[in-house]
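User: Can you predict the 3D structure for this chain?
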Amino acid sequence: MARHSYLCPIRWADMDVYGIVNNVAYLRYLEEARVDFIFRMAPTEGDAFFRDGSVVVEHRIRYRRQLVHRHAPVEIEMWVSDLQSATVAVDYVVKDGDTVYATASTVMAPFDYRTGRPRRLTDEETRFFEKYVEAPLGAR
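Assistant: Here is the predicted structure, written as structure tokens:
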């Protein structure tokens, strides 16, 4: 199956008082990578998944090594680890080659903001995410 890779810049402001990338910055990194990934769904019309609405249900991050500011971006590799009719889980590895800084997972749910209610994935969304389905991080 396919994986998506995003090269994420590290900003000076991402560091905390100890000189390492702050844990909150990791959530922004994952969001940038996820948006970059999902915008592949409908690049000419904007992103279908976000256009129709989605919400983050859960984040999990496991920090492996300290990441410090530098000019080179860090790679975020991602794939779909679980696909249900009303949720999609995305797993991530934040890394440089074999050096892993963090592993993470985000569960998202499609959401209809007009009605204020959850919705099911459309057939188009399911087809897009199916191309990236792979075993979750812990299953390997």
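Residues 23-38 form the longest helix (16 residues). The first strand starts at residue 4 and ends at 8.
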